[in-house]
Structures are given as structure tokens and as C-alpha cells.
Amino acid sequence: MTMNRRHFMATAGAGLAALNLPRSGFAAGRLRPSGAAGIGICDWNLGPMCDPGQVQRARDAHLEGIQVSVGSDIDTIALRDPEIRRQYVQQALVYDIVYHSVAAGGLLNSYPLATEPYAAVWVIDAIEAAAALGARNILMAFFGNGDLRRRDEAGELINQPEGGFNSYALKQDWVESVVQTLKHIVPRARDAGVVLGLENTITARQNLAIIEAVGSDWVQIYYDVGNSWGNGYDVPGELRLIGNDRLCEVHLKDWNTPMLGSEGCMVNMAACARALDDIGYDKWLVLETSGRRDRFIEDTRANVDFVKNTFTMA
Length: 314
Description:
Elements (H helix, E strand, L loop, with lengths): L4 H14 L19 E5 H4 L8 H6 L4 E5 L12 H14 L2 E7 L1 H5 L8 H15 L3 E5 L30 H21 L2 E5 L4 H11 L4 E6 H6 L4 H8 L4 E6 L16 H10 L5 E4 L8 H15 L4
Parallel strand pairs: 1-2, 1-8, 2-3, 3-4, 4-5, 5-6, 6-7, 7-8
């Protein structure tokens, strides 16, 4: 039968993983011209996390990819299970879906990489799972308990104006701990051909300083336009500052409405799209929205159409 590009990517990624060979160069973004590689969704917005049975739902909603969570809690690291990985690969072939990234999100928000030594194991789990699923990126989250920003005795964030951007003072000991931990994890990521993406509440400049301290191209920024806009950052300016080579993926969402670009949407998606065009962005755009209650398919299809009409797609 004729094998289209996504089938090739899924089988190539799985085959290389089975042979334990690095896959750098099979990244979707690296093989496409300028323009986003595709439109995906976080699995926690799709349905139950770590569930291969949700893949058909993504296709029904006109999505092209899924960001799969490595696990839902410390006792359930689902993607360690070879059978779960096998099911994901099989579903990718059946429904023509790409797994563009693996998330170590909720786990790291509860048990921070900066303070909990075993949190590094979950990042390594995510790297191994990404290699098995043909994914290119890892999302490492720093929210909740893992927030890198410093607070005063009253629990208020400590403001620290920086270079024209709103920003906050950081827990420098935590930042140093993250840098040192990443230095030890980077060789694993490099050998697997998987990028480690930082998603957090701090500015682009602060993230770039962390990347420079780690000293590796395998650590990049996982940017969320909704989070950054909500924190008062200049999102288009930050995207231009980061540049395509240091931006691994982009989350699209709005805190006021589940419908992108609708009335009341606080994020200027058109301005974000222009900024991504300016830097030649060629990776995945990932919806982090579930739509309105009981209207997932309808609303996600509308969000997919909005993204296609607003952002440049390869």
C-alpha cells in the first residue's frame, strides 16, 4: 500500500527505537519547510491521560498529533509499560496520528525537579518513552510546587523588572539545582534524539539564561502563549527573542475562553502567529484546551480550523 509521511514517521520512529538508535534528523520540524509542522493536543485535554484508547478521538476531532503524558501519578508511570507503548504505536498507524512530544508535567509540578532527586527518573522515563513512540520533545513543567519564582514572607511574588519585560526574582538555588540535573540528563536526551523543553512561569530571558548555563542545544523552551500572556509578558517579543532553534513546541490556549480567537479571548493569536512566522517556526502547535462541556469534538474542530486559518502551516 502507499505509505504517507505520517505513517513513515511513526514506523521509522518505532523502528529506530527498537534498534536503540538515535533519531535526531527524523524530527518532524526538521524535515518540513517553514510553517508549523502540525496541530496536536495534550492528552489531558483529550480524555484520560496515558490512554491509547483516546487516539481515535483525536483523529475524530481533526487533530494530527498528541502530546502523551508519561504518567498520571508516582505509582502509575504508564509509559514504562512496553505493552502500553505498543498500543500507542499501533493506534498511530491505524489513525494516522503523530506523537510529537511526551509530557512529564503533573508529576514535576507536584515533585519538583529542583528538590526531588527521583524526579529526574521521570524525565528519563519520558526520554525513553519518546524514543519508543517516535516523539521529538519532552515537556518538563515547573508550575505549582515546582515554580522557580521567589515569594516574600506573605507569599507574594517578588517583582524584578528586567530588560523591559515584567519578571520576578528566582529561587537561585533551585535554578542551579535544575541546571546541574539537566547537565546529567542531557547525554540521555542527545543519544535518543529528544529535546528537553522547559515550560514554566518565568521570562524568555530567564529561560535562555538557564539554557546557556546548561550549555546544550538539547535543552530548549516549551512555550505556552496563554501562560505567558497571563503573566503579563510580551509574548510576540519573547517568541522573536527565543527564535526557532531554541523553541521546541508551542502550547495554544486562552484562560478566558476555550474557543481560540473568539470574543473575550485575551491572547492575541494573530500577533503570536506573526511572531512565529518571523522566526520561521517549523514545529508543532499544541492545543491545551478541551472545548466547552460535552462539546469536545465540535469545539476542537473549530479550534483546529482557527489555527489553520491564523498560523502558517507547512
